[in-house]
Amino acid sequence: MSDLEVVADDVATEPSAVGRVAAVVFNPIKVDLEAIKAAVKIEEAAAGWGRTLWFETSEEDPGQGPAAQALAAGVSMIVVAGGDGTVRAVAEAVRGHDVVLALLPSGTGNLLARNLDLTLDDLKGSIHSAFTGEDRKIDLAMVDVRRADSRTDTHAYLVMAGFGLDAKMLANTDDELKAKIGWLAYVKAIGLALRDKNQLHLRCTLDDGPARSLRAHTVIVGNCGSLQGNVQLFPDAVVDDGLLDIVLLRPETLFSWFQIVGKIMWENGVLSRTRAGRSVRTKDVRALTYLTGRRFVLTLKGPEKLEIDGDEFGEAIAIRTWVEPGALTVRVPLESAE
């Protein structure tokens, strides 16, 4: 029997006849499906849940369609088995629905899982937590994207969205280097930025404040702050504080780039891990501006490439982004629920 036939047979199951039912939305490229099915079968039986439903993503549909199918089947929980892009797509589809998301981290990023302090590379533990853990409400960030032809499309994101030296460049730094030397691997990404003379000409508004016109090399809006290698791009960001964190990189000289590297890589990535280190943090520098708010509108002089949760989203001439506090419910282990 093919996987497609199994999925069709599972969808036909009546959830109401067996109590709570979960669905797994999985990226077939990034997961070991048979291992997941074996672990799910054990945990669903132990928890007294019905037979889990299975929905596969594709290159054309990274998760919204499969998640919509799961919602139509009346599931209580969707286990997302994939990278940050799959998690983002499923979260976008379940917005406004009373369903819980459980994460089965797969891939190299797993930034939302990292910011929730979930254990990575533990298939059985993650599946066990999905069926036995507690719920935690976190914020969901939304963004309206205006294109050069005046079309507008709306997306959800959980980690970061930005222009310039954005979250994707930082998150996709060489994996072997990250495994060996941690945060120092990001120096390679910053080194590429030193040769990038691109300037964003923008006009922005934060909440009900006045509009500001400025130039920046990079603008990143974050729903949470931690990158791989324990680097804190937004050291004060929390996934459930009802706020967006914004950073503008505005280097004017080579020295200002070194200031940025020092703040993000050294202070946020190393010193902030200890109480003594946090006590010696320096003042903000002009090349690195942090803002917080609930709504942020940014208009560009011309089209620029946009990244959302590490994926390319084409070119945009403007974005309007806002936070929906507590709009997403995720399953976390019992000991980390508080």
Can you describe this structure?
The chain is of the alpha+beta class and 338 residues long. It has 2 domains: 3-132, Probable inorganic polyphosphate/atp-NAD kinase, domain 1 (Rossmann fold, 3-Layer(aba) Sandwich); 141-325, Tumour Suppressor Smad4 (Sandwich), CATH 2.60.200. The protein contains 12 helices and 14 strands. Strands 1, 2, 3, 4, 5, 6, 7, 8, 9, 10, 11, 12, 13 and 14 form a 14-stranded mixed sheet that branches.
Topology:
Layout: H1 3-11, H2 15-18, E1 22-26, H3 33-47, E2 53-56, H4 64-72, E3 77-82, H5 84-94, E4 100-105, H6 111-115, H7 123-132, E5 134-146, E6 152-157, E7 160-163, H8 167-171, H9 175-181, H10 186-194, E8 200-206, E9 212-216, E10 218-222, E11 244-249, H11 254-267, H12 275-279, E12 288-293, E13 295-308, E14 311-332
Parallel strand pairs: 1-2, 1-3, 3-4, 4-14
Antiparallel strand pairs: 5-6, 5-14, 7-10, 7-13, 8-9, 8-13, 10-11, 11-12, 13-14
Helix pairs in contact: 3-7, 4-5, 10-11
**Count of distinct structural domains:** 2
Give the oligomer, counting copies of the same chain as homo and different chains as hetero. single chain
How large is the radius of gyration? 21 Å
Number of helices: 12
Main beta-sheet strand count, sense and barrel state: 14 strands, mixed
Unreliable runs, pLDDT <50, ≥5 residues? Answer: 1-17
Pfam family, one: DAGK_cat
Keywords: Kinase, Transferase
GO molecular function: kinase activity
Organism: Microbacterium deminutum
